[in-house]
Amino acid sequence: MKVCRTIAELRETLASCRASSIGFVPTMGAFHEGHLELMRIAKRANPIVVVSLFVNPTQFAPHEDLSKYPRREAQDLAEAEAQGVDVVFMPSVDEMYANANTLVTVKGVSDRWEGQQRPEHFGGVATVVSKLFNIVQPDTAYFGYKDLQQCAVIRRMVSDLNIPLDLTFVETVREHDGLAMSSRNTYLSEEQRALAPMFNKSLREMAQQINAGTANVADATLLTKGKLSQLGLSPDYVALVNPWTMEELSAAQQDARIMAAVRLGPVRLLDNIPLLTS
Ligand code: AMP
């Protein structure tokens, strides 16, 4: 496995690989099984897999956890290598941004939900992902449904900017108790960690209520918000959404997902599940 720290080095490394298909997994490191699953899926479909490991400062607001974001470089590199990753791109902030002045904004799909809670976030994500796409020029890029709105933003950006690659979205990898894996779960105290699985359980119960017809979407949403608050998982939002437009839905439809964010101690937990399980 080769580690590249500059754009020039990465381009030179990939120049001889272009005859093979290249899979790309963008990450911010501190790998867990969710990240490793994306790498394994990419490796099954592509002879060459590139992983980027870059904690992108422009997607964090000044009060957010950029400086505390977990960093475990040596362990991450060993784990990526064990999944068969061929190249890890690990640029410095200067290498990525120098004096860059361009911001990619994906209107509409970025505005609500996470975009409302974190107004700068998706501009930072869309900008860094479009830069990484231009640097790596992969055939296929892999993202997790765990960050559902991010998937919608990137899908829209790729379509609007005619970026020549395919996107593959991968279902969320969970702990045994249902908690969606996240690098930020390490910030939870023991007590908070014990409570955290109730988040996913509440979303699954909401899906059951809607599917069984025991509550309509509006009532099930309200009930779920109330239940989460009572448990001490303060909801920022709970909604049934169209996963590609991020519009809120008032009735079930085929690809609808229940999406939510709650605050638990120092952490915002995000999760989403398909309404209908096939
Ligand atoms: P991050 O390092 O948090 O930026 O995540 C890198 C990629 O891994 C993103 O596409 C995430 O959506 C994805 N990811 C994060 N957590 C999970 C998970 N639990 N299951 C599957 N993919 C995930």
Can you tell me about this structure?
With 278 residues, the chain is α/β, with parallel strands linked by helices. The protein is built from ten helices and nine strands. Helix 6 (121-136) packs across helix 7 (148-160). The mean pLDDT is 97. The structure holds adenosine monophosphate. Residues 27-28, 34-35, 37-38, 143-144, 146-147, 170, 172-173, 180-183 line the site of adenosine monophosphate.
C-alpha geometry: globular
Give the % helix.
Answer: 25-40%
| Uncertain segments | none
- Sketch the major β-sheet: 6 strands, parallel
Q: What class do helices, strands and sheet pairing give?
A: alpha/beta
The tally of helices reads: 10
Please describe the structure with a list of short key phrases separated by commas or semicolons.
278 residues; alpha/beta; six-stranded parallel beta sheet; 19% strand; binds adenosine monophosphate
Summarize the structure in short.
38% of the residues lie in helices and 19% in strands. The protein has 278 residues and is an alpha/beta fold.
Topology at a glance:
Layout: E1 2-4, H1 7-15, E2 22-27, H2 33-45, E3 48-53, H3 73-82, E4 87-89, H4 93-97, H5 114-117, H6 121-136, E5 140-144, H7 148-160, E6 166-170, H8 190-195, H9 197-212, H10 217-231, E7 234-241, E8 257-264, E9 267-274
Parallel strand pairs: 1-4, 2-3, 2-5, 3-4, 5-6
Antiparallel strand pairs: 7-8, 8-9
Helix pairs in contact: 6-7, 9-10
The structure holds adenosine monophosphate.
